[in-house]
Amino acid sequence: SMSVYILENKTHGNKAFSNLNEGYGKVLRYGAYSEEVLERLRWLNGGMAATLGKAIELSGGIDIRALLAEALHMGDEGHNRNKAGSVLYTAKLAPFIAQAAPDSETAAKILKSLGDNALSVLNPVMACCKAMADAAHNVEGSTIVSTMARNGTDFGIRVSGLGERWFTAPVATPKGLYFPGFTEADASGDIGDSTITETAGIGGFAMASAPAIVTFVSGTPKDAINATLEMYEITIAEHKAFTIPQLDFRGSPTGIDIRKVVETNTTPRINTGIAHKEAGVGQVGAGLVRPPMEVFHEALMAFAEKYGF
Amino acid sequence: SMSVYILENKTHGNKAFSNLNEGYGKVLRYGAYSEEVLERLRWLNGGMAATLGKAIELSGGIDIRALLAEALHMGDEGHNRNKAGSVLYTAKLAPFIAQAAPDSETAAKILKSLGDNALSVLNPVMACCKAMADAAHNVEGSTIVSTMARNGTDFGIRVSGLGERWFTAPVATPKGLYFPGFTEADASGDIGDSTITETAGIGGFAMASAPAIVTFVSGTPKDAINATLEMYEITIAEHKAFTIPQLDFRGSPTGIDIRKVVETNTTPRINTGIAHKEAGVGQVGAGLVRPPMEVFHEALMAFAEKYGF
Questions:
Q1: How close is the nearest chain B Cα to the Cα of A155, in Å?
Q2: Cβ–Cβ contact A83 with B under 8 A
Q3: Where in chain B are the domains?
Q4: Which of A32, A102, B4, B53 has a 20 to 30 A CA-CA distance from A289?
């Protein structure tokens, strides 16, 4: 077992969890499990988690939604680019880590580990999105997507008004940029549950906030603006907390409506990491992908059957 | 006397210096000198500077130009918005501060002070700009502005090919937004030497990088883009290290050419803080200002006299 972050939705009282982020490349969450991977996990779960837990307690808890809102004003989109969020997270926790660590060497090691990892805050961010999305699940009559997740083979969604049923279809392979030494031929099918970020209105949906991300996922800054603009077509609301300076502080497009997806024939845009297709290698790139349209068709039919209209 | 940062231009070997940043509001550099101001200065110059100095030594030195380049991809423009740069600076130094501090309480206090102050990195950034601009000074035949500075009464520039002569004229008053309780009636004339940032191609010149700054200085994100676009008209180059994602990674407009300023009748754009007109109060707002056109006219005439064309 591994230590986890606990994220609480203060309004609705529900909680979500995530482990500690391992960084890029050879990491367990992308299928790598060599000795160095296990060694890092032991350190994360040992000295790091113990001190981090104490530091978070000393801090009284970090408001991840507020941090994320700030990061969106600092060039992050919260899924594939968390550079600003991760240094904000490091800087906010730093005084408490200094106090909580058993000695200054441990404090220094943890601070370096958090500050150097541009994904440090991704895991608390995903759990924050999960805590928000779960609060929107199981609303009678709602056509809003409350979960999107992939397992490398199938892409699945759940819809708020359709309970625990998953609508699934085969995944696509992300298009993007590869780390040195890897190509599209190495890519696994789309994988992971990080699409909870797009479900909650950030990531690919807030890409306009993150023009510099194109150096990592391909495309141009104009594409990033267009990605967000397109997502307004399939969402029900503009986020009150997450605003996009590049679009005159318009709220990020939030709440995927299966009716709008089908009506406009536009699937959600997802920024994601790319795993190697073989177990043991790890993350090999990052790029863009969309869910299969079938899952939205199927969900809409199920909705019509259940609610009779 | 106060401890200073030492910034070295590694290419040219020249150095520049700046003190530690005090934060916003009641601060000595904007004319406040109450007991709380002096108390903070004593702390900055005492425990903080001692540990920070050791930490910077342990780190082997921080590459402020690289940090600034990163911050421009994170919504800063480097003069009036240094939010990202300051947390980057805090996160980079944090492990070394943990090691250098005499005890964990001091480490925590310094980390909190650096991380909570969105201007922490402004002073090293200004000294970095000074070290770059000084290297461009005293180039025979050069029409590039190598210094801009204001003292609340006069605005002065120096031109690279015109040696130590200052060209001065009365300052304007910045237009901007005021901190609660203050209005334009409280504003001092434009003041300070922070315009070294615009001289070096950031600040108002890189405003396109910082759409969220408009909440602090007034205007719209589109104005921020236009500010940078206009500055390409009066500059000689596009910066190699400082690129602007919003403009497809175009280099920031750098090197104000007095010939272009006069020819296009366009003065440089400056983002700046606003001081209270009475001594003892401090910073009361932030906004935008331009130098008086006369100084460029005068400099161009002096150039023609000296070089005979």
A1: 32
A2: yes
A3: 23-127, 137-307
A4: A32
Q: What CA–CA distance (Å, rounded) separates B166 from B152?
A: 16
| A147 residue type, one letter | T
Q: Kindly state whether A212 is in contact with chain B, defined as any CB-CB distance less than 8 angstroms.
A: yes
Hey, what are A98's tokens?
């200094």
B147 touches chain A (CB under 8 A): no
pLDDT digits (tens, 9 = 90+) for A182-233: 999 999 999 999 999 999 999 999 999 999 998 888 889 999 999 999 999 9
CA angle A95, A98, A103 (to 5 degrees): 175
Tokens for A213?
């991300």
Instruction: Search chain B and give the residue with CA nearest A94.
Output: B111
Suggest the residue from B87, B103, B244 to mutate for an interface test with chain A (most A CBs closer than 10 A): B87
- Per CATH, the number for B23-127 is 3.90.1710.10
**Rounded percentage of chain A residues whose pLDDT exceeds 70:** 100
Is residue B218 scored above 90 in pLDDT? no
Neighbours of B181 (CB within 10 A): 7
Q: Which of A88, A97, A108 sits opposite B99 (nearest CB)?
A: A108
Annotation: CATH topology of A138-307? v583 fold (3.90.1700)
Taking 3-state DSSP, the helix, strand and coil percentages for chain B, each rounded to the nearest 5, stand at 45, 20, 30
CA angle, B204 then B209 then A21, to 5°: 140
Please identify, in words, the CATH class of the domain defined by B137-307: alpha beta
User: Rounded to 10 degrees, what is the CA torsion of A188, A192, A195, A196?
Assistant: 180
Query: What is the distance in angstroms between the CA of the first residue and the CA of the last residue of chain A?
Result: 46
Residue B85 near residue B91, CB atoms below 8 Å: no
ipTM value, please give it: 0.94
pLDDT band of residue B215 (cuts 50, 70, 90) is confident
A17-127: CATH architecture: Alpha-Beta Complex (3.90)
